[in-house]
Amino acid sequence: MPDPNAELSPEILAMIKEQEALVPSAEERKVLLTSNITGDGDFDGDHLTKIAEERLEKHVKQSRLPVVDPFDVLGDAVEAAEQEREDIFQDDIEDAERNQVDAFSETSPLETLGDAVDLEETLDQALDEQPPVWDGGPEVDPRLDSAIEKLTKKHPRIAMNIRLLPHHEGLDLPEYKTSLASGMDLSAAIDAPVYLNSIGATVVIPTGIMVEIPVGYEGQVRPRSGLAAKNSITVTNTPGTIDADYRGEIKVLLTNLGGRRFMVERGMRIAQLVIIPVVQADLNLVGELSETERGEGGYGSTGVM
């Protein structure tokens, strides 16, 4: 595999150099092997752990570096790599018991650290929305796939205050039904059914909520496609505009464009609220406007086909 230390910072290289002092020599390996296999052939891991802890404590006392365990920082990536290394180590122990040879794997623990650092740097690149580079193998690590998906498959978010009125009690908060939905559903906060009896009938439906839209944004109340397609129910002033300085209750104007009677019930999702950026224009009074190919061509000037 590539040298895991090739792209590391001086601080990490210094830490790695000191970590190398913890790797047992060949002679120490044989001693540890023979001293940690009990009479019944089982490997005494507790004894080896105690020896390792004593060596680490002595190393830390002599070290001038901060006492920081890099494996704690690197987290799950190292744990997964270490688990794989433990499995290999156990296989080596079993081979040693059969063949009476050195039981320690030739794989340096620093390779595990190097792989983990590579993974951490790759995830940092994903967070910066740069093309990912994965040096841990021929295939992209699934954890990196998950990180990229979370970063790229979502809309930007803003915080918005909402106040619930008494007649909203028991109803769901407006919410986005899918991860990439543009609008959050608004529900009817009514006590009794309301009917749109015929074509052109219009009613005002309260939602029981008040919002504080951030400056630089507006709210648009739009029809729900399901109600329009199946029942010919739409929002009369679509899209209804909610300004950032409006502090009243959001109400929805519903109109029946079909010939069938339609009933609105409490809790029915009747419209959707979309929050979008807006700008204001500073008007400049001029005598002439710039010329364009279209000019003053208005309704139908471009044809229908």
Please characterize this protein's 3D structure.
- The structure is a single chain.
- The chain is α+β, with helices and mostly antiparallel strands and 305 residues long.
- The chain has eight helices and ten strands.
- It folds into two domains: 10-152, no CATH class; 161-277, Deoxyuridine 5'-Triphosphate Nucleotidohydrolase, Chain A (Distorted Sandwich), CATH 2.70.40.10.
- Helix 5 runs antiparallel to helix 6 (109-127) and helix 6 packs parallel to helix 7.
- The radius of gyration is 34 Å and the shape is elongated.
Summarize the structure.
The protein is built from eight helices and ten strands. The chain is an alpha+beta fold and 305 residues long.
Distinctive features:
Deoxyuridine 5'-Triphosphate Nucleotidohydrolase, Chain A; alpha+beta; single chain; 305 residues
Write down the overall mean pLDDT: 74
Strand order of the largest sheet: 1-4-8-6
What is the H/E string?
HHHHHHHEEEEEHEEEEE
Shape: elongated
Topology, please?
Blueprint (H helix, E strand, L loop, with lengths): L9 H11 L5 H10 L9 H18 L7 H5 L1 H24 L9 H19 L14 H11 L8 E4 L19 E4 L6 E3 L5 E11 L4 E6 L2 H7 L1 E3 L4 E3 L6 E8 L5 E3 L4 E9 L28
Antiparallel strand pairs: 1-4, 2-10, 3-9, 4-8, 5-7, 5-10, 6-8
